Amino acid sequence: MIREATDQEIAQWDKLIEANPDGGHFLQSREWAEFKLSLGWKPLYKVYEHKGLKVAILVYQRSVRGLGTIWYISKGPGVTSQHDLYEVVDALVASKPKAFLLKVEPELDVDDVDLKRAATHKIVKPARNVQLKATIMVDLRPSEEEILAGFKQKARYNIRLSARKGVAVKPVDPTPQNIDIVYNLITSVHERAHFFFPARSYFEEYWRILTDSGHGQFFVAEHEGEPIAAAFIIQMGKHAWYKDGGSTRNKRELMAPHLMQWEIMRWAKERGAESYDLLGSPTRDALDGSHPLHSLYQFKSGFNEHITEFAGTLDVPLNDRKYQLWTGGLERATLAVNTRRKHNLWY
């Protein structure tokens, strides 16, 4: 049921990912596999086929000193039901991977995964999620007029105000000058929010890989020649994602980020995207204002108030003793050392 992908399938990997039931995710793309390889993860290209269900699965494999290896399926496998998730996980376990842990991250709604039922398939919920569990999505299938009408009144006002005040948003090439602009603007936001911020080389590596493949695009919003907001967008098949972005405190009254997001949505829609993922929101039970993403939620909710909350990271321990050592403190220590020494993300 689980087999290695053929050379021909690997050569067309992104098309296989886009054909998955969930429409694919950029973290399962061949380009992201190239990026992860530079960080110490070995990509394994797998295909599951059984009774009409076919799923392309990119498994990231990494060694942990003293324990063995981890298999991590970032934002996958690309299924759309709990039943199919268990079917694929059972097949992966039956393939006898040389690993002590299998981690999966299906984009299934949190309410669609019964953890008691998952436990019968040896799936457990870990204490931490690798990727953000909640996000805000914008449906790009309606007309532009209908999409705009679905925004909050204040968001629509800010978009029109920004355009009226002379803010111009445009896609730009990945020149050294434009990369400087984007990096400096996203850095300022992270510094204000006190988030961990990887080294510049971390961003530049995947920006290069994704722009070279045609999946990545920089956007800059300017006013009177001054860059005041910028973003890096990823688009694959019918999905687009707001990967990185930032804006200056200067000229905040021009509301450039609102106009920039609207122009990005229009651009993605023209390229065939049917959904736009704003990547990152507090969970539905954490809207009291204390969540570190609360200010971003206030901005993003102007485009859609509904929070899409996924089941998040799920673990399948393949060696109980090693898994207990990993979750008992070794994982936390490994991530901390990696952050301090390499200034990037371990997962």
Written overview of the protein:
This protein is of the alpha+beta class. It folds into two domains: 2-131 and 311-342, 3-Layer(aba) Sandwich (Aminopeptidase); 135-308, 3-Layer(aba) Sandwich (Aminopeptidase). 38% of the residues lie in helices and 23% in strands. The protein has twelve helices and 14 strands. It has helices at 7-11, 13-18, 30-37, 82-94, 115-119, 144-149, 153-164, 176-193, 200-213, 256-270, 294-300, 320-342; strands spanning 2-4, 42-50, 53-64, 68-73, 101-104, 134-135, 137-139, 168-172, 216-223, 226-236, 239-247, 275-277, 308-309, 314-317. The strands form three sheets. It has a six-stranded mixed β-sheet with strand order 1-2-3-4-5-14. Strand 4 (68-73), helix 4 (82-94) and strand 5 form a beta-alpha-beta unit. Helix 3 packs antiparallel against helix 9 (200-213). The longest helix is centred in the C-terminal third of the chain and has 23 residues, at 320-342. The two termini are 27 Å apart. The model has no long low-confidence stretch (mean pLDDT 96).
Give a quick rundown of the structure:
This protein is α+β, with helices and mostly antiparallel strands and 347 residues long. It has helices at residues 7-11, 13-18, 30-37, 82-94, 115-119, 144-149, 153-164, 176-193, 200-213, 256-270, 294-300, 320-342, and strands at residues 2-4, 42-50, 53-64, 68-73, 101-104, 134-135, 137-139, 168-172, 216-223, 226-236, 239-247, 275-277, 308-309, 314-317.
